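Form 7-S
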Amino acid sequence: MLLKDLLTEVSFLDVKGPQDTEISSIGFDSRKVGQGSLFIAVNGTTSNGHDFVASAIEKGCKAVVCEYIPEGSAKEGITYVQVKDSAESLGAIASAWFGYPSRNIILTGVTGTNGKTTIATTLYNLFRKLGYKSGLLSTVCNMVEEEQFPTANTTPDPITINELLAKMVEIGCQYAFMEVSSHAVVQKRIFGLHFAGGIFTNLTRDHLDYHLTVDAYLKAKKLFFDMLPGQAFALTNLDDKTGLVMLQNTSAKKYSYSLLTLADFKGKILEKYLNGMSLQINGKEAHVQFIGRFNASNLLAIYGTAILLGQQPDEVLVALSDLHPVAGRFETIHSKEGVTAIVDYAHTPDALVNVLQAIHEVVEGNGKIITVVGAGGNRDKGKRPIMAKEAVKGSDQVILTSDNPRFEEPEDILKDMLEGLSDEQKKKTLVIQDREQAIKTACMLAKKGDVILIAGKGHENYQEIKGVKHHFDDKEVVGKLFNNEIQ
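Output:
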């Protein structure tokens, strides 16, 4: 493509050099560019792309998009496009490079602390069940109809997003569902995308290592809705105290869902079981294979989105009744001895409370709840003691263990968690650093009718220690223990 064609949607301040330069590829990582590339110098969280302009030119880049030309980087024969915001420019250029794919597919974004993966993935599964080719961008995996692509972040970088959307468009996908993280909004990874709608789930403490304050975290979520166009829909959760805040400045058409109050999409739990529940949604009943109040809320968002995207209510409810929970989200495993293990991604205090509450509602005191939980390293330290406290409040026995310690020492993380407990609470708490041994201990303690909750990692099949990902799958470990394959 010609450089000038890539700059159609870019607000640039100045251009030094020819705009009719032929561009062979685009990139924001100087290690991945080559002869004839356009390099976009983005100021990131850990490094500044402007420091690598000279390196990109050495590798054969013909043009550079930057907020300023770094000292000593001005070279003959290179076109420099000066912009106010390189991150925004990257989104616009990536969209242009792949032929503006988000304009040729119905793209819906989901944001919030908890529930994003369940909602986005279930929408993808639902629309495929309804007969539509669909795509998914999520924490667990990226899907182009049936083809799976690996995922590194909840929301990929702009080039990856547009490349995947282009693949979806190429094979005839009509719908795409995408998790939108707060990091992605602030870092403008979704800039240049055309959304048909946005969904808000809830907001609780998370990512304060990055956003620093809850208010900044809230504003990051809200910014997604502020960016939605007038023809889009904005669907929010009225049961969350910040639900209406999300709609304050949006131009999109406003809709709501709730289990507690009047809303466009109103739900009620009729019956609960360990393998599902009966729901009433807008006066119609359905049995679903999801468990817990939080999932009832998620299903309302899914149902509402499907209706706003033009689907028929009865068809949606029939399809929903056939769908299963997402990998690592309240996945149940049963032993021959009558013990139930639940593997869940709950890694925030609120998510942990929701899962434990759902278990209590089903068990109703007819069995003990044993919780195995840890906290990730190099993340918000403030939530660690809260996680431990909520685990103890909602369980008969708690085993604190290692999660993904990353570059921290596991014992330091566990010490932070213990600081949230009183001496009395510590009496029903064990600390077993080795995660496999912690799960094994929980299985040994459990008797018929008891429920073991293994929280924090869900779908993840690794433990990240000192920069290395070691294979570890909670579900796999439980399965082997239940089948006596691990001694």
